[in-house]
Amino acid sequence: MAGGNKSCSESETTELPGAVGYDGTAGCPAGCSCSTVDGFVNSHEVKCSYLGLSDIPAMVNLWTLHTLDLSNNEISILRNASFSTLSRLLKLILSNTEVEVIEINAFAGLEKLIETDLSYNNLELFNPEIFSSNPVLENVSLKGNPIGVLSSSSPILISNSVSSLDLSSCSVSTIHPVTFSRLPKLYFLDLSSSLLQTISVSTFQKLPDLTILKIEQQLHDL
């Protein structure tokens, strides 16, 4: 993550190449909006949507950052350790951000992350271990990505904590026995509005907690 280790108590402002600069008065990335989170003590939400960002903005007050919204930008690559200083972050929103590459350690350091929204990006392939360093992650949305071909020998994700996975409006046509085999806590799975034609009968045998499965498909005119 671009930015260095500037203390929150320092008043001077530094321009950082490839990242949004600091707003020294508000302690908020320039161009973004920052607010407190209802129900959480000393927690803040930072919204940096529609700014044309191509990289992760530099942050201050990292200890109190609860939610980071980077939706509707132009961040095509999530590089390793992009969020490594945001150790207290609970929710990360990256929808409609043109993401097409996620390096394997992009989310390293987010040990308290509970929810991430990667919907409506350009993801076709990604390493199944991208969330291996997020031990309490529960909710993952990959909705609306052009994920078409799933490996018959590798799971889509590997996580012992993810309980909700949204793959709706993707291009998936076939689900294999191994696809969800490394998501033992999966409770909610959305496969609706996809191109799904085939699901192996053994797909859900290793998902004892699966309670909600959505597979409604769109009807197309012939």
Would you spell out the secondary-structure blueprint of this structure?
Elements: E1 22-23, E2 28-29, E3 33-36, E4 44-47, E5 65-69, E6 77-78, E7 91-93, E8 101-102, E9 115-117, E10 139-141, E11 164-166, E12 174-175, E13 188-190, E14 198-199, E15 212-214
Parallel strand pairs: 4-5, 5-7, 6-8, 7-9, 9-10, 10-11, 11-13, 12-14, 13-15
Antiparallel strand pairs: 1-2, 3-4
Portion of residues in beta strands equals 15-25%
Termini, distance in Å? 49 Å
General shape? globular
**For the residues shown, what is the average pLDDT?**
84
Sequence of secondary-structure elements: EEEEEEEEEEEEEEE
Spatial sequence of strands, sheet with the most strands: 3-4-5-7-9-10-11-13-15
How many domains? The number is 2
In the CATH classification, which architecture of the largest domain applies? Alpha-Beta Horseshoe
In helices, the fraction of residues equals under 10%
Structural class of the secondary elements?
mainly beta
Q: Total number of helical segments? A: 0
Low-confidence stretches: 1-26
Biggest beta-sheet profile = 9 strands, mixed
According to CATH, the homologous superfamily of the largest domain is: Ribonuclease Inhibitor
User: How many extended strands?
Assistant: 15
Give the C-level CATH assignment of the largest domain: Alpha Beta
Explain what the structure shows.
- It is a single chain.
- This protein has 222 residues and is mostly beta strands.
- It folds into two domains: 1-88 and 96-112, Leucine-rich repeat, LRR (right-handed beta-alpha superhelix), CATH 3.80.10.10; 138-222.
- The protein is built from no helices and 15 strands.
- It has strands at 22-23, 28-29, 33-36, 44-47, 65-69, 77-78, 91-93, 101-102, 115-117, 139-141, 164-166, 174-175, 188-190, 198-199, 212-214.
- The strands form four sheets. It has a nine-stranded mixed β-sheet, with no helix packed on it.
- Strand 3 and strand 4 (44-47) form a beta hairpin.
- It starts with 21 loop residues before the first strand and ends in an 8-residue tail after the last strand.
- Mean pLDDT is 84; it is low at 1-26.
